[in-house]
Model the fold of this input.
Amino acid sequence: MVAVGLVNALTAGEAHGRSYRPPDDDYLPAAVTAVLRAANPDYGDVPAEDAEELRGIATEFRTVFEAVSRDDVDTAARQVNKLLAWTGARPALDRHDGEGWHLHFHGTHDGLANGWAAGCATGLAIVLGTEDRGRLGVCTAARCDRVYVDASRNGTRKFCSTACQNRVKTAAFRSRQG
Done:
């Protein structure tokens, strides 16, 4: 999910046991481009202005994940509603890249940042409106606050990555060995 990539790449905090600083202005467009290319490998370079706008939006998305991880669905829903209103998200059928018609969500204007924000906000709204809302999370490993969407079959994920899961398991094993 692009929202996860934006939050994890563009918001400060801790990642995998280390302090995490997002890219500064010089590297911000490349970082945002990398996130969007993970969703669409043919995506072009992101201009600095759009990258800066998406950095601010990533902070807004983080609020949603943090609220859900505290089981505060009301705050998460209010935040998503704010984002939906701000972007003016509206559905539209699109056909591109040799694919058939499929549903996209666009913002009130066709700017890059607004378009991605509208789609991500809609995706978060869809998840929040179901019993799967608990699949949005913040890593529970010590010194990590990266976010994730749990796409596992049983829905019991607690970590942003295998690296954090392994760190926790190794620490628990070492403490048992005493």
